[in-house]
Design goal:
Strand content of chain A: 25-35%
CATH architecture of the largest domain in chain A: Beta Barrel
Structural class of chain B: alpha+beta
Structural class of chain A: alpha+beta
Order of helices and strands of chain B: EEHEEEEEEEEEEEEEHEEEEEEEHEH
Strand content of chain B: 25-35%
Distance between the termini of chain B: 27 Å
Distance between the termini of chain A: 51 Å
Order of helices and strands of chain A: EEEHEEHEHHEEEEEEEE
Number of domains of chain A: 2
Strand order of the largest sheet of chain A: 6-13-10-11-8-7-14
Number of domains of chain B: 2
Oligomer: heterodimer
Number of strands of chain B: 23
Strand order of the largest sheet of chain B: 16-17-20-19-22-15-23
Chain lengths: 213, 307
């Protein structure tokens, strides 16, 4: 089903995969609106890249659900949410993959960290694990394929890059990203409200310290 | 107090209260067999908002008169040397020991009490999530272990009742589980889509609340996908080894393996209770939706009428 700019695929009885047909539409803004003031028919919402899966309550009529999804989507641009800005410090002492990255990007460590320091990263999705945010904004020159052999255990707090994203690992987990430092910030705490430190659409600037910066 | 002196199988408190957490990469969690969970709700109403999901092998006592009920798998229940079974509202008095055996048909039971319970909640839910290491009694996602106790709040005694109820899946021989074509369904070629619906599958030993890895002599060839995608409940991932994985209540929110379709809600309840081999068949989401609501209405009618 296509409603103007939105393609809706029904994945199961209550899950709907929504993909805007026009990539310039701000899906992040839509999701922020849905999560801030969630309609009663909505049970959950997962965003990956430019697609959003909406999980709806069991009791609602599917045809009404389609109309409701389209209605909320049409509100994009009318209910802008305040964006939060974060400044985080990364210790480059723990840049376990620095040499490998420098080989790929043909620049020295100072230039690399200087480039990263000037980027305004945007939280474009949360996934993989609670508190793991995909931060977009890397220039093409820093887009690296994931490591051929992932690490079995990436230390918690590792600042890393891969593909077009940067991220901080919220806890120890396997991972194939390139580690360029360490951040002390707790990224997910169920006792906090909201539990995720970084919210969709937030911006992040990094300051790099330590002997490589 | 409700005091468990024996918990021999993975057991946890579950509810359907968690909501709007997927954007933080947190899973909704909830009961694996939602139909049996709802059976208890039809029987005990508000009291059944939180239930113990278990595979049996329990022993407990109570400090005040209360009733309990077990839905789902068929188990033998012993209260002060009297024998009961699933789908009975059973009264229990202080100092009486209740023993719940292992299922003799099906796998998962839902145990609920005619009392409110004092249980810790995380993100609005009593569900613990092992993969995410949070929630539950120990605040780390771990299952309950004996000895374990929790406070009962305003327990109420209800009259004994036997519902004489048999869940639909117990009467199904050689079951066909319904799959809604979705995600990369069309990227699997015709031959592999046919192999998928003609193969006999069994549940492997790698089965937990995150997902059930299946085994079969038939291996599927998978298409290549490069991007992660949101994962719906019941999504059937097919990794490179060609053996499907059905993703369940504690699934991850996103994933990068090709998905051939989603198991219907009704078939998820069958899958988690099954011991035998099964096959898949395709169904449309509208049909699956109608069948789910028809089953709910049927069971609600049976259980509330008997009640």
């Amino acid at each position: 089903m296509q409603i103007t700019n939105l393609s809706i695929e029904r994945l199961n009885e209550n899950s709907w995969l929504c993909t805007p047909r026009n990539s310039s539409l701000k899906v992040t803004e839509w999701v922020r609106g849905l999560t801030t003031h969630s309609p009663e028919w909505l049970r959950d919402c997962v965003m990956v890249a430019n697609s959003v899966m909406l999980v709806t309550q069991d009791e609602f009529d599917p045809w009404q659900i389609r109309r409701s999804i389209a209605q909320t989507f049409s509100l994009i641009g009318t209910q802008a949410q305040p964006i939060r800005h974060h400044y985080l410090t990364i210790d480059t002492e723990y840049a376990l993959d620095l040499e490998e990255v420098l080989e790929h990007v043909a620049m020295d460590a100072k230039a690399l960290y200087e480039t990263l320091r000037h980027i305004e990263f945007v939280v474009s999705a949360n996934g993989f694990a609670p508190g793991f945010s995909y931060l977009s904004g890397l220039p093409k020159s820093l887009h690296l394929q994931r490591k051929a052999t992932p690490r079995m255990a990436v230390p918690a707090g590792s600042f890393a890059i891969a593909s077009e994203y940067a991220a901080i690992y919220p806890k120890v987990s396997p991972g194939g990203w390139y580690l360029l430092g360490h951040c002390e910030q707790t990224l997910f705490d169920v006792m906090q409200h909201p539990p995720s430190f970084l919210q969709l659409g937030d911006t992040v600037h990094f300051d790099f310290v330590g002997r490589h910066a | 107090m409700l005091e468990f002196s024996m918990i021999n199988t993975p057991s946890l408190w579950v509810d359907r209260e968690r909501r709007m957490v997927g954007h933080m990469a947190v899973t909704l969690s909830g009961p694996l067999d939602e139909l049996s969970f709802r059976h208890n709700q039809y029987l005990l109403g508000e009291y059944a908002q939180v239930q113990l999901e278990s595979r049996g092998g329990l022993q407990f006592t109570v400090s005040a008169p209360v009733c309990f009920c077990i839905a789902g798998a068929a188990v033998e229940v012993n209260v002060a040397h009297k024998t009961y079974s699933s789908y009975e509202i059973i009264p229990v008095l202080p100092k009486q020991t209740v023993t719940v055996g292992l299922p003799n048909c099906g796998k998962i039971i839902y145990l609920c009490f005619s009392t409110q319970l004092s249980l810790p909640k995380v993100l609005d839910s009593t569900c613990c999530v092992a993969r995410e290491e949070f929630g539950g009694e120990y605040h780390n996602g771990k299952m309950l272990r004996a000895p374990y106790s929790c406070a009962m709040i305003k327990p109420k005694v209800l009259p004994y009742k036997n519902m004489h109820f048999t869940p639909a899946w117990q009467n199904t021989l050689n079951p066909y589980l319904s799959v809604i074509p979705a995600y990369q369904h069309t990227k699997f070629d015709v031959v592999n889509r046919m192999k998928f619906t003609s193969a006999q599958y069994k549940i492997s030993s790698k089965a937990d609340r995150m997902g059930y890895r299946l085994i079969s002599e038939t291996l599927l060839e998978t298409p290549t996908i490069t991007e992660s995608q949101p994962i719906a409940l019941g999504a059937i991932q097919v990794p490179k080894d060609g053996l499907p994985i059905v993703l369940l209540a504690d699934k991850q929110t996103t994933g990068g393996y090709p998905i051939i379709g989603c198991l219907s809600q009704l078939s998820i309840t069958q899958l988690v209770q099954l011991n035998d081999e099964f096959t898949f068949k395709w169904t449309e989401p509208e049909t699956a939706h109608s069948q789910w609501h028809a089953q709910l209405a049927h069971d609600k009618g049976r259980l509330e009428t008997n009640n």
